[in-house]
From TrEMBL:
<dbReference type="GO" id="GO:0005886">
    <property type="term" value="C:plasma membrane"/>
</dbReference>
<keyword id="KW-0813">Transport</keyword>
<protein>
    <submittedName>
        <fullName>Uncharacterized protein</fullName>
    </submittedName>
</protein>
<keyword id="KW-1133">Transmembrane helix</keyword>
<keyword id="KW-0472">Membrane</keyword>
<comment type="similarity">
    <text>Belongs to the ZIP transporter (TC 2.A.5) family.</text>
</comment>
<feature type="transmembrane region" description="Helical">
    <location>
        <begin position="369"/>
        <end position="388"/>
    </location>
</feature>
<dbReference type="InterPro" id="IPR004698">
    <property type="entry name" value="Zn/Fe_permease_fun/pln"/>
</dbReference>
<keyword id="KW-0406">Ion transport</keyword>
<dbReference type="GO" id="GO:0071578">
    <property type="term" value="P:zinc ion import across plasma membrane"/>
</dbReference>
<dbReference type="Pfam" id="PF02535">
    <property type="entry name" value="Zip"/>
</dbReference>
<feature type="transmembrane region" description="Helical">
    <location>
        <begin position="294"/>
        <end position="314"/>
    </location>
</feature>
<keyword id="KW-0812">Transmembrane</keyword>
<feature type="transmembrane region" description="Helical">
    <location>
        <begin position="117"/>
        <end position="138"/>
    </location>
</feature>
<feature type="transmembrane region" description="Helical">
    <location>
        <begin position="76"/>
        <end position="97"/>
    </location>
</feature>
<dbReference type="InterPro" id="IPR003689">
    <property type="entry name" value="ZIP"/>
</dbReference>
<dbReference type="GO" id="GO:0000007">
    <property type="term" value="F:low-affinity zinc ion transmembrane transporter activity"/>
</dbReference>
Length: 389
């Protein structure tokens, strides 16, 4: 009996010793402190105000320039900001969100499932399908509302879901079109482009009617475009806001790399703000929501500075490399990455280049190439910033 107890105690001590060893190794790997070294305190405090100004400039300037003539820039400037911002958002998703999320959620100190499965990419994949399903429901809801407003189940909504009659011209329209072309041969040039398909993301038919008549197809189309743009802007804001919180905390608690990180984040926040602000400015806000764009821009402008201020307040206790911080940061970055990837690729790139009328007509192809080139510059510069932050 004594031998049994002795063996049991020895085994228990061995297990306890191994557990303590594992905990010690876990604490060594998941550092419970941060890199803050007490230097550059003046610059750290100034970063709150500098990044507030740059973030506000990026998000507010497109809105102001689209509303007030005294600061209104040439249309080409808005064109450049629009596509530059699209590239910035796509690069942010891959370089500034998904890659750090993968690093955090695959840290060796986490162990278990974190080392057995690429959780960051799995969460991002889930968010892509969640976003797509949410858009399916939103457009189906708009389609149903359009039918109810028209008072007939035969009326056509302008979402990109529906039967063939929404996309192909009826035979009667074809006959009338052929008659008109016979009388006007000059119009034949545009037939191939416009006979069956209209590359409009929210509407696939051209029906000539008075746009001022409330309840017409054109009126419903405008409502649907507004609802879709509103949804996209809120989703984009949501993804960017979460990312801004963590980069503010990281800057405040950084060590020797503070100077380089500070400089990079100034450009990062400006570029990201331009991308978000341009998208906000493109929405045709009704009078009942006239304050919404300003609130969205203000929320972006203040998020990172407030996070920096909070980080400075807890600079001696906030552990950015602790187990909890790594998991929380990684999960939210993965969610934000999924949101921005879907928004950037589908709503910005595909919508603007494939489903809009902006590049139709004479000179459209050249304009499209310029837009693509500007978007690549935005993505390239934002990706380059990932070298330091």
């Amino acid at each position: 009996m004594v031998d049994f107890l002795s063996i049991t105690m020895d085994s228990s001590l061995a297990v306890a010793s191994e557990f303590v060893s594992l905990v010690a190794r876990d604490e060594d790997a998941c550092v419970s402190t941060n890199d803050y070294n007490g230097s550059y305190m003046g610059a750290r405090i100034s970063s709150v105000f500098v990044i507030l100004i740059t973030s506000a400039f990026g998000s507010f300037f497109p809105i102001l320039s689209s509303r007030y003539s005294f600061i209104r820039l040439p249309q080409v400037c808005f064109f450049l900001a629009k596509y530059f911002g699209s590239g910035v958002i796509v690069a942010t998703a891959f370089i500034h969100l998904l890659e750090p999320a993968s690093d955090n959620l695959s840290s060796e100190c986490l162990g278990g499932v974190f080392l057995e499965y690429p959780l960051a990419f799995g969460i991002c994949l889930i968010m892509l399908f969640v976003m797509f399903f949410a858009e399916l429901l939103a457009y189906k809801w708009m389609e149903t509302r359009g039918m109810e407003d028209d008072g007939s189940s035969n009326s056509h909504s302008h979402s990109h879901f529906g039967d063939e009659s929404m996309f192909v011209r009826p035979a009667a329209s074809d006959e009338k079109l052929n008659t008109d072309l016979a009388a006007n041969p000059a119009e034949q040039e545009g037939l191939a482009r416009g006979q069956q398909w209209d590359a409009d993301h929210y509407g696939h038919e051209r029906i000539h009617q008075d746009p001022e008549v409330i309840g017409t197809e054109i009126d419903n189309k405008a409502k649907e475009r507004y609802t879709a743009n509103l949804l996209n802007v809120f989703v984009l804001e949501f993804g960017i806001i979460f990312h801004s919180v963590f980069i503010g905390l990281t800057l405040a608690c950084s060590g020797d790399e503070f100077v380089s990180l500070y400089i990079v984040l100034v450009f990062h926040q400006t570029f990201e703000g331009l991308g978000l602000g341009t998208r906000i400015a493109l929405v045709e806000w009704p009078k009942t929501r006239r304050w919404t764009p300003w609130i969205l821009a203000l929320a972006y402008a203040f998020t990172t500075p407030i996070s920096i201020a909070i980080g400075l307040g807890v600079r001696n206790s906030y552990p950015p490399y602790s187990r909890t911080a790594l998991i929380v940061n990684g999960v939210f970055d993965s969610i934000s990455a999924g949101i921005l990837i879907y928004t950037g690729l589908i709503e910005l790139m595909a919508h603007e280049f494939l489903f809009s009328d902006e590049f139709n007509g004479k000179g459209g192809f050249k304009k499209m190439l310029w837009a693509f080139f500007v978007m690549c510059i935005g993505a390239g510069l934002m990706a380059l910033l990932g070298r330091w932050a």
